[in-house]
């Protein structure tokens, strides 16, 4: 396959390195608004560089890793060009714009896979299988944790949509995917006791959400930009028969307070790319198979929209300090 990648930033560089070594990628071409950045990345990976217009005419599949503000337009253009596309989440920060882009995909009948990589993580997949098999019994409580080791640059905040839309949206998608249930009500709170640039951007550096699922299951989801112990993503599934934890291992950045309990790990997870390296590779490999018609789409644009609407409800709840029903 001839694959085009648009966006040579941090996540784009990672995806490009994976695609460059994939057996089923015959040629990789990179485009970026910063031509020098694209050229430097392409030279390192023995890939080609070109323009977005050329990519849309010449490749077999497209990977979109540009800033969020450009996603909807590129998704729409890929659909109209008849190309299967992989796009990092979200399609847009505005649900209305997301729906417009998804309508273009539907009209064209093309494939759009969104980048919710936790669906491809071995631990999350094992937990999903355990829950769906009935091994846990009735699951009454789910607890999700997403903690960055350090805050992002200040100029990232206006582009991200805020902590809830940027980070907790992953937990919202994962909960729906794991349980097969829908969220009926949310209540969210946030705080910004860290750097002033969070408050200046109208954002928070720590947030917590209580979700109620349509079967009564209660979900707590917390996120923070300040977790000096390391990057931490975990999820506890508590059922009447058993309890499972995703993300608990020898690199989990936690220290037991119990006598004789495990201490801090020697090498905690540094960031999300390291924590989900296996998942990122698996989602791209699956996308290539799906683009060839050899596998189903495991994370459609509509799935991404559903998670986005939960995030929007939580953001509204946080700002107005009230429960919000979906």
UniProtKB/TrEMBL annotation:
Keywords annotated in UniProt: Oxidoreductase
One Pfam entry for this protein is GFO_IDH_MocA
rRNA-binding listed as a keyword: no
Q: Which SUPFAM superfamilies match?
A: Glyceraldehyde-3-phosphate dehydrogenase-like, C-terminal domain, NAD(P)-binding Rossmann-fold domains
> What InterPro entries does this protein map onto?
Gfo/Idh/MocA-like_OxRdtase_N (IPR000683), GFO_IDH_MocA-like_dom (IPR055170), NAD(P)-bd_dom_sf (IPR036291)
The protein's matches in Gene3D superfamilies, at most eight in alphabetical order, are given as: Dihydrodipicolinate Reductase, domain 2, NAD(P)-binding Rossmann-like Domain
Highest taxon, organism lineage: Bacteria
Question: Where does the GFO/IDH/MocA-like oxidoreductase domain lie?
Answer: 124-241
Q: Where is each Gfo/Idh/MocA-like oxidoreductase N-terminal domain found?
A: 1-116
Instruction: Name the family the entry cites.
Output: Belongs to the Gfo/Idh/MocA family.
UniProt cross-references to PANTHER family, sorted A to Z: BINDING ROSSMANN FOLD OXIDOREDUCTASE, PUTATIVE (AFU_ORTHOLOGUE AFUA_2G10240)-RELATED (PTHR42840:SF3), NAD(P)-BINDING ROSSMANN-FOLD SUPERFAMILY PROTEIN-RELATED (PTHR42840)
Q: What is this protein called?
A: Gfo/Idh/MocA family oxidoreductase
- Biological source species: Streptomyces blastmyceticus
């Amino acid at each position: 396959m001839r694959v085009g990648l648009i966006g040579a930033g941090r996540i784009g560089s990672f995806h490009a390195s994976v695609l460059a070594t994939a057996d089923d990628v015959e040629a990789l071409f990179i485009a970026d608004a910063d031509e020098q950045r694209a050229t430097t990345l392409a030279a390192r990976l023995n890939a080609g560089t070109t323009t977005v217009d050329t990519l849309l005419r010449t490749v077999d599949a497209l990977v979109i890793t540009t800033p969020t503000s450009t996603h909807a337009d590129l998704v729409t253009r890929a659909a109209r060009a008849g190309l299967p596309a992989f796009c990092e989440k979200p399609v847009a920060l505005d649900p209305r714009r997301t729906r417009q882009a998804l309508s273009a995909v539907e009209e064209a009948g093309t494939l759009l896979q969104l980048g919710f990589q936790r669906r491809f993580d071995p631990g999350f997949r094992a937990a999903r299988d355990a829950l769906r098999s009935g091994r846990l019994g009735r699951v009454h409580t789910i607890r999700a944790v997403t903690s960055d080791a350090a805050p992002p640059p200040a100029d990232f905040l206006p582009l991200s949509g805020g902590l809830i839309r940027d980070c907790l949206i992953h937990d919202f998608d994962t909960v729906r995917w794991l349980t097969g249930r829908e969220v009926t009500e949310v209540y969210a709170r946030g705080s910004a006791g860290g750097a002033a640039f969070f408050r200046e951007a109208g954002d928070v550096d720590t947030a917590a959400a209580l979700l109620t699922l349509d079967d009564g299951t209660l979900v707590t989801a917390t996120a923070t930009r300040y977790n000096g112990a390391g990057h931490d993503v975990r999820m506890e599934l508590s059922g009447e028969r058993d309890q499972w934890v995703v993300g608990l291992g020898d690199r989990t950045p936690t220290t037991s307070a119990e006598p004789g309990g495990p201490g801090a790990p020697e090498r905690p997870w540094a960031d999300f790319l390291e924590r989900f390296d296996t998942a990122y590779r698996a989602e791209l490999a699956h996308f290539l198979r799906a683009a060839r018609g050899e596998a189903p789409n495991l994370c459609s644009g509509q799935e991404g929209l559903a998670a986005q609407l939960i995030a929007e409800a939580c953001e509204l709840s946080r700002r107005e300090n009230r429960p919000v029903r979906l």
